[in-house]
Amino acid sequence: MDGNELFGQADLEAHTQFALFLFHGLPSSAQCEETNRITLAYFLISSLDLLRTLPFIDKTQIIDWVYAHQVLPSSRSDASDCFNGFRGSLFSGAIFSPLGASALRYDGGHLASTYSALAILSILGDNFSRVQKHSLLMSMRKLQQHDGSFTSTHMGSETDLRYIYCAVAISVILKDWNGIDKGNAIRYVMSCQSYDNGFGLSPGLESHGGATYCAIASLFMLGCIYMDPLSKEASSTLFDVKGVIKWCVQRQTKSGGYQGRSNKDPDACYAFWQVTRVAGSLHLLGAGHLCNVNALENFLGKCADKHGGFSKWPGETPDILHAYYGICGLSLLGKPQLKCLCCKLGISTEAAEKLELLSQV
Amino acid sequence: MPSSESDASMEQEEEEKGKHNEDEEDSDAHMDPKEEDDEEDDDEEEQEELQIKWVPLSKRPEWADIQPVSQDDGPYPVVPILYTAQFRETMDYFRAILALDERSPRALLLTEEAIRLNAGNYTVWHFRKLVLQALSYDLWEELKFIERIAKANYKNYQIWHHRRWTAENIGPAAMTTELQFTEEAFLKDAKNYHAWSHRQWVLRTYGGWEEELAFCDKLLHQDIYNNSAWNQRYFVIKNSPFLGGVGAMREHELNYCRDAIAVDSANESPWRYLKGLYKGDDEALPRSTTVPAIVLIELQKNKDCIYALDLLLELLCLGYEPSQELIGALGLQLDSCSAFQIATFVCTHLKEIDTMRMLYWDWRLNALSNASTS
């Protein structure tokens, strides 16, 4: 399939139809993603936004649905450490209310769900009037550990760069850094850098495209990467920017797609997923132009399904995650039919600009 | 891209891998007689039994006193999932037990049923911990339970998190079983990120460093391209209390890299590892005699060796002055070459042979000339 054919109007319409189809209902095989439902919604809504087809869905209903996931402060004695962010779904028994619901027993917000919820609200142009910002940020701070990392919920979880990214993005969206000890977070991110200049998910682990994206996007938003306005070159006092750029460009394989780790079979399952992570990191480091776009476009073409959506591998069934990253990939390739992607926040630049204009959250 | 951050996407990614691996495992099981066929079959049977013989909780007398609590998705559910009847009812009863905070043997069984339907539900796992504690449950038995669950999914964050919690609560006595548990995971996928993370935690918390370098060596003998094993090797030389750190191990490791590179000079991992031995110590790199010797050996074998040329360029940028032999290996005239000219030559050559990264090498070439003019 050549580039023109792939990105023609008919193809974009098929991608929209695919996203809308899933938006209205997922098969029972998605049960294992039950706790991440709000993130699945974010993938689909952001896809539609990038495709300029948001008007096909009802914003008011979605905004109410998102707010229903907000965990409101509770007077329960066992809820004093509860994270007042957003739930991933209403599985723990909260009653639906367009303002949110107080924490039940063993109920609470999740950092990734909270990021997804705020991203959806930003995309839909909500003004955050119902967000309980103060309690959200104060309780988020309690999730930060001594080493600077975050757990995802107050009940504990593994801690790694994904949750640092979420906490940082939440702070940027809400324009308030009171929910995070920045210095400590920066130290943690840097402790995850590996001997080969990429970043692992936690200290000592192997460099990984997703982790490297989380690290670079976080450092970018934490003000640790300086972009020279004239040369457009990035620099940092914390790490060797050119070393990270090199690690990223070396992830592009013969197929044109990106591998997530050195020597991972480029043809194996999740090569596709890395496209936007690694290419996105390059963009954030002012080196987006170093990506071989022709090869990448070719690779994306092979994974696009003619009925819409993208699959992890040519010929396989498309799914939400790959469909979303495929669309992000098209956006990063600079396809004029799509909105531009704001690499640091994971929403369209248009939505990010609207956020900027919100004077007070 | 946004959601590299997100739990869901990473998890889904891992799950994708999990599914992929399951497929592989299926075929492997038939080919490799060492696979524990019987056990696998038992597990499959067990799964099937659960599917076929599932009795709705509402029909079980022991649950008659519980009023199930349904999920309230509101008037306009977004991305609704078409839950199976089994999933819906199990979760309805789980919600009821959660609200009652009932830490009982039947609650423990219910968490198992819920976990088998969705091992990603962190609240179910959390509640299971509380029940285990309340019942003073034997945590060695819990390790066995996790093994049964993990068989179907070695790439699930919540399972590994629960594993760590259980091992943490058992204490140092769990060291051996935990190292073995990761080794079982590596039999299925020697690059399993969760398993490596768990293994590093075990080493840091309970020790077991003595055999770890040999373990890395064993995995690298099985697959010299396994970057996860190279990473673990670095983790060991950096953190093992018995080896003296990266600096002390450097020469030893350079030799190890030399041998690995000799097997296949297009293997990125040993080259990256070699360069990593000098991380944070850029000054020592151009002073090394071993490193240029490795570059020379490989360029004499193949003057288009990308990683050797790449490393040579790094050396030149750090002020290394190449030997006559090295200049000769590049096919250059000895007398007419400044360091800048050699670097330009290497970079131009890389641009020609590493076509996927043509733009990158062009960028490096520009940086070289800018540096020389400024």
Automatic annotation (TrEMBL), chain A:
Q: InterPro entries, alphabetically? A: PGGT1B-like, Prenyltrans, Terpenoid_cyclase/PrenylTrfase
Can you cite an annotated GO cellular component?
Answer: CAAX-protein geranylgeranyltransferase complex
- Source species, domain of life: Eukaryota
Which GO terms label this protein's molecular function in UniProt?
Answer: CAAX-protein geranylgeranyltransferase activity; metal ion binding
Q: Which Gene3D superfamilies does the entry mention? A: 1.50.10.20
Keywords attached to this entry:
Metal-binding, Prenyltransferase, Repeat, Transferase, Zinc
Q: Report the residue ranges that make up the Prenyltransferase alpha-alpha toroid domain in this protein.
A: 13-339
> Per its UniProt record, what SUPFAM superfamilies does this chain match?
Terpenoid cyclases/Protein prenyltransferases (SSF48239)
Q: Which cofactor does it need?
A: Zn(2+)
Q: Does the keyword Metal-binding apply?
A: yes
Question: Tell me, what's a Pfam family for it?
Answer: Prenyltrans
Coiled-coil residues = none
PANTHER family, per database record: GERANYLGERANYL TRANSFERASE TYPE BETA SUBUNIT, GERANYLGERANYL TRANSFERASE TYPE-1 SUBUNIT BETA
Q: Which family does it belong to?
A: Belongs to the protein prenyltransferase subunit beta family.
Q: What is this protein called?
A: Prenyltransferase alpha-alpha toroid domain-containing protein
What taxonomic ancestry is recorded?
A: Eukaryota, Viridiplantae, Streptophyta, Embryophyta, Tracheophyta
From TrEMBL, chain B:
Q: Which GO terms describe its cellular component?
A: CAAX-protein geranylgeranyltransferase complex; protein farnesyltransferase complex
Q: For bias kind Acidic residues, which ranges apply?
A: 34-49
Record keywords, A-Z: Magnesium, Prenyltransferase, Repeat, Transferase
A GO molecular-function annotation: CAAX-protein geranylgeranyltransferase activity
Q: Which stretches of sequence are listed as region Disordered?
A: 1-52
Reactions catalysed = L-cysteinyl-[protein] + (2E,6E)-farnesyl diphosphate = S-(2E,6E)-farnesyl-L-cysteinyl-[protein] + diphosphate; geranylgeranyl diphosphate + L-cysteinyl-[protein] = S-geranylgeranyl-L-cysteinyl-[protein] + diphosphate
Q: Where is the composition biased (Basic and acidic residues)?
A: 16-33
What EC number(s) does the entry state? 2.5.1.58, 2.5.1.59
Essential cofactor(s): Mg(2+)
> Which class of enzymes does this protein belong to?
transferase
What InterPro entries does this protein's entry cite? Prenyl_trans_a (IPR002088)
Q: What does this protein do?
A: Essential subunit of both the farnesyltransferase and the geranylgeranyltransferase complex. Contributes to the transfer of a farnesyl or geranylgeranyl moiety from farnesyl or geranylgeranyl diphosphate to a cysteine at the fourth position from the C-terminus of several proteins having the C-terminal sequence Cys-aliphatic-aliphatic-X.
- Family, as annotated: Belongs to the protein prenyltransferase subunit alpha family.
User: What is the protein name stated in its UniProt record?
Assistant: Protein farnesyltransferase/geranylgeranyltransferase type-1 subunit alpha
Organism of origin is Ceratopteris richardii (Triangle waterfern)
